[in-house]
C-alpha cells in the first residue's frame, strides 16, 4: 500500500504543527502549508518534510499552491483545511472580500475544489477546522457574506466557522459518491496565536476568561489526527461536525440544505470557479 500523503494548512504553529508532528511520527508523508515563510520552514526542517508558503488573504496564492501540490504530489489522501484566524476591524482582501470569510472559508473552499480530482482519485479525506463560534456567533445572511451591512468581528468569525460546517456537509453530499469523505471539528479552547491580530471580545475571552481552561495544541489536534487516521463510515460519520471525537450539535443554520447549496454556489462565484 502506498504511503499516505497528508496536506495540512495552517501548519506553521498551533494545532496544525502539532498534527503534522503526530502524523509524521505515524509514518505519513506530511506536507505543510503556512503563511509565515520563516515559521513554516522551521517546522518543515524539524520534520524533514516539504512545505509551501501561501497567504490565504490572496486567492492567487491559493491557486499557485494548488498547482504546486498537483505538480509535486501524485496522491493526496488527507487535506486538513486548518488555516484561519480571527480579525479585528472590517478589512477587504485584494480579491475584494471580507478578510475573515476569505481566510477561513473561501480560500480552503477554493483549494479543496482545485484539488478535488486528485482527492477523489485517492479516496481522500477532507478535514475542516471549525469552531464552537458557529453556535455562539454565527448567523449567515447569504446576501451579505461580505458583511457590508453590519460587521462585528465575532459575527464574521462565527459566520466563517459556520461556513466551514456547511461546506463540509455540502462537499460530502456532492462528492461523497466519488470517494470523498469530509468532516468538520472544533479543536477546543486551544492556546494558539490564531486571534493575535484581533481586538474583539472573543479574543479577550480566549486570552483571559478561558485562559486557565486552554488546552495544549497537542490535545487540540487530537480530533484532527483521529479523523485523519481512522476509517470513515466505521469510526466516524462523513459530513458531521465533531469535538473530542464525538458528533456535536452545531447551530441550526448548519443543517439547512438550501443554505448549504446556496453558500456553495456563492463561493464558486466568489472564487472564480463558476
UniProtKB/TrEMBL annotation:
PANTHER family: PHOSPHATIDYLINOSITOL-GLYCAN BIOSYNTHESIS CLASS F PROTEIN (PTHR43157:SF31), PHOSPHATIDYLINOSITOL-GLYCAN BIOSYNTHESIS CLASS F PROTEIN-RELATED (PTHR43157). One of its GO terms (molecular function) is oxidoreductase activity. Coiled coil: none annotated. Keywords: Oxidoreductase. Gene3D superfamilies: NAD(P)-binding Rossmann-like Domain (3.40.50.720). This is Short-chain dehydrogenase. Belongs to the short-chain dehydrogenases/reductases (SDR) family. Pfam families: adh_short. It comes from Subtercola boreus.
